Each structure stands twice: as C-alpha cells, then as structure tokens.
Amino acid sequence: MPVPDVMFCAQQIHIPPELPDIMKQFTKAAIRTQPRDVLQWSYGYFYAMSKGEPLPVKERVELPVATQKNDTGLTPGLLKILHKQLSEKGTIETSELQKKWKNLCLPMAQLYNLLHLDNFVDGVEWMKFFALGCSALGGSLLSSMKHACEILTNDPEGGAARIPYDTFAYIYSYLSSLDEEISEESVESFLRALKEEVSCKEYMVGVADFSSVQKKF
C-alpha cells in the first residue's frame, strides 16, 4: 500500500526556541576549532553536550606554526581540550581516550605511538599521557615543560604561565625517567633548586622560573 503524501504547514513543525542559539554556538565552535572532519567532530560535540561533558572546542583559533614542515596532528589547543575532558577521572580506559581522540579528528597512529611509550596496563593514567602529549609537542624536555605550563596555567594568556610546583615536579620527573641520559640525581638536584626559587611565590612555577634554573645546570 503506497504511503500517502503528507503535507506540513509551518504551524505543524515545532522548532525548539533554544535551537537557534545552539546552532549559533555550534557554528562559532566549529570556526574556532577548525576540525579536519566536521562530521566526526560534530558527533563528538553534540554527544558531549547531551552528556553534560566539556565540549571539544578550542578556546581560540590556533595559527599554523610557520616552521612546522609536517602536520603532527596534536596541538596545544587540542591537548587542552583532552585535559578538560579527561583529567578529572585520573585513570581512564583506553577505549574512552580513543573515542575522544577520534572525535578531535586526530590521527590514531599518533595515539598508539604515544601509548607505546609507557606500559599502560590497567587503564591510562591521564597526567602521564598528558606529559607524553607535551613531549610530542615540544621535542625537548624544556620545551615540553613550557607547553605543560601554558596549557595547565590559570594565568591570562601572555602571563607567567604558573602551575603548582607539585604538578610541575610530577611531569618533569616522569618525562625525565623516560630519558636514559638524564640521571635521577640530576632530576632531584634540579627540582630542589627550583623549589628554592619559587618558595617565596606560593610554590607556583612559571616558565621564567624553570628557564632560569635550567640555565644553571
């Protein structure tokens, strides 16, 4: 039996009053984040919205790095999104990390390469993975720590980029432990000197602080 033609008039189509604002915010978020795959990112956006989770949206548009010959996928802005989405859970399932990573349209090969740098057996410790993400962005320990401070800080953009000393020490110690050329004694010595440097600043470490101490080693 053929389906009868149905005619709709404007009065029959109900449009939620909040829809225009939702679509406006969605459009702004897409422009700011500039995802590679808009469809995949849109799925992640509205899924996060439906669950009341942090949205996969960059705080600002990231300009391409002029000296970067190859697109490495992960950027400080994207790593900051992941931190907002996953940090509160402490340890996360690999499948959840894969899902968030995919929704940001990041290459899965890069994720697997980062995971292989440590032996994550009973889930992924977020702060360790975050540190590995900073190392992928930085290329050197000093540059990695600079990225960590700039992503984690509550200071305004262009400020001192301070983070708690304990957070800095954890990330620095972890990344140093992955480098066979850095001795445990040198790490302890550096952190001890850094702690003395920031003892009068409520134990908050800024980029200038660790750069200053680094020059002495």
Measured on Cα atoms, how large is the radius of gyration? Answer: 22 Å
Mean pLDDT over the residues: 89
Please summarize the sheet with the most strands. 2 strands, antiparallel
Distance between the termini: 84 Å
Major sheet: order of its strands? 1-2
What is the count of DSSP helices, taking H or I runs of 4+ residues?
Answer: 10
**Content of β-strand:** under 5%
| Fraction of residues in helix | 40-55%
Tell the overall outline: elongated
Task: Give the SSE order as H and E letters.
Answer: HHHEHHEHHEHHEH
Helix/sheet category? mainly alpha
Number of strands: 4
Number of domains: 2
Low-confidence stretches: 65-69
GO cellular component, one term: motile cilium
Keywords: Cell projection, Cilium, Flagellum
Family: Belongs to the ropporin family.
InterPro entries: ROP_DD
Question: Which tags fit this structure?
Answer:
Ropporin-1-like protein, flagellum, elongated, cilium, mainly alpha, 4 strands, 217 residues, two-stranded antiparallel sheet, 2 domains, ROP_DD, cell projection, 10 helices
Describe the structure.
The protein is mainly alpha-helical and 217 residues long. It has 2 domains: 28-58 and 73-125, no CATH class; 139-217, no CATH class. The chain contains 10 helices and 4 strands, in the order αααβααβααβααβα. A two-stranded antiparallel ribbon has the order 1-2. The chain has a two-stranded antiparallel ribbon with strand order 3-4. Helix 6 (126-138) crosses helix 8 (165-177) and helix 9 crosses helix 10 (207-214). The model is unreliable at 65-69 (pLDDT under 50).
